[in-house]
Amino acid sequence: MVRPGKQSVEAALIFLSVAQLTAGLRCVCHLCTNHTCETAADGACWNSVMLIEGKEESVKSCLSPSEMKGQVFCYSSRNVSKRNCCFTDFCNNETLHLQPERPLEGPGWSRLQLAAVILVPSCLMSVGVLLGVVVVQGHCWAHKQDLEEPLDDQMLMSSDKCLKDLICDMSTSGSGSGLPLLVQRTIARTIVLQETIGKGRFGEVWRGKWRGEDVAVKIFSSRDERSWFREAEIYQTIMLRHENILGFIAADNKDNGSWTQLWLVSEYHEHGSLYDYLNRYTVSLEGMTVLALSIASGLAHLHMEIIGTQGKPAISHRDLKSKNVLVKKNGTAVIADLGLAVKHDSSTDSIDIPSNHRVGTKRYMAPEILDESFHMNSFESFKRADIYSLGLVFWELARRCSVRGLHEDFQLPYYDLVPSDPAIEDMRKVVCDQKLRPNVPNQWQSCEALRVMGKLMRECWYANPAARLTALRVKKTVSQLSFIKDVKD
Ligand code: ADP
Ligand code: MG
């Protein structure tokens, strides 16, 4: 029998450990369905504990390779937090404690590696796994020495950091999809709630204060944990951040012994929803154009797939309506309430349907959803249904556009055709059987911008989904409106 030489054994071990490193890992995850997550190749399992209000709170999850580059994850700070990255399946299952400090294990590993090579050459597989750990540990130590001081929460959360800085740090650190979980939790737990500002399907929305800044906090009841999780997950989709998508800040689940409080923290917009805004104010031609352009841009960004490792899947909103669009101080808008959104996985052409059964708002449902001819397995269908709803939102907006002092009152689409809380059947009769759509007033023909808006909304709410415009087309047409003379006057 030919006995392998020491060098070939080492080569085989290195090969095995590299192979192990390039496959994904399964880890314990507090915020995930089934409490399990899977990392991308070269990711890690993450285990952390932090002192919050005098109590040790632990978070476990998966880390992506880009989050590991973010440098905040694998390092502990004295007495405040301890973080551990590890590289075998479910290695983050242990519970970490802050006190007493455990000495770093380390220099003995290479000897152990040698001993393993010499003593158990026949157990190639098990030693391979061991060496895998050694390689990664070595990499982590080397990395650690690059840092003069461990990066701790005090630094990350230094008192002069406002939310914009933190979010900006996050996008330059390469973690891409959101603030680190511990930072999210720390922010959420230092918010002081001020007043309720909205009531939706899943509980209340509050205005809160964080270091003097206003934030919005959507509080879900523990019954709606899935909706909370889904919305947090969608907001943390890589590359989702956009000036016309509500800026997500943090998600937190706090167990107070008898129930779990589920928070979703986002940027606060004092004008509230487009629905509230249009009820209160009329808009100028320019104001209408700016709002329409930002809604179309937000939707075009959601719908767009960005290809690449830092890519973004195409997303469909599924509940677009004036109550789910918020108006910013500068007169632009953001799309909010992503709790019903679905993502498209183009590599398998599959849709990750959320696990709750909520469907969109009946009044804004596309005809093909109302009459059940909707093709659930085609992602294009989801985008086309969003465009139908966009047409209705444009109609609500254009009615409030004041030209030479003339405008209409605020109304919801089909206000004159269905009862105030319409059933699917009410909507189906009007939208599918009678093929009615909101009225486009004749006087819009005498103003170029309103004429274009009228034409656009008709092209968004065609009965045939394939005939509808795309979000990108709507965005381009609206952006040309800003060059029309009467918009500027
Ligand atoms: P739901 O899923 O329950 O419908 P939404 O996210 O749509 O919850 O919020 C409900 C309402 O709360 C919105 O229509 C809006 O009036 C208000 N609201 C939500 N988020 C914000 C925010 N970030 N700033 C200001 N108002 C908000
Ligand atoms: Mg809503």
Number of domains: 3
Largest sheet features:
5 strands, antiparallel
Mean pLDDT across the residues is 81
> Which overall shape is indicated by the principal axes computed on the Cα atoms?
globular
Total DSSP E strands: 15
Spatially, the strands of the biggest sheet line up as 6-7-8-10-9
Secondary-structure arrangement, i.e. CATH architecture of the largest domain: Orthogonal Bundle
The number of helical segments is 16
For the record, give the distance between the C-alpha atoms at the N and C termini, rounded to a whole number: 92 Å
Taking pLDDT < 50 over at least 5 consecutive residues as the criterion, the unreliable ranges are 1-6, 8-21, 101-111, 128-152
Helix vs. strand class = alpha+beta
The CATH superfamily of the largest domain is identified as Transferase(Phosphotransferase) domain 1
In terms of DSSP E residues, the strand content is 15-25%
CATH top level assignment of the largest domain? Mainly Alpha
CATH topology-level fold name of the largest domain: Transferase(Phosphotransferase), domain 1
Radius of gyration: 27 Å
User: What ligands are attached or bound here?
Assistant: adenosine-5'-diphosphate, magnesium ion
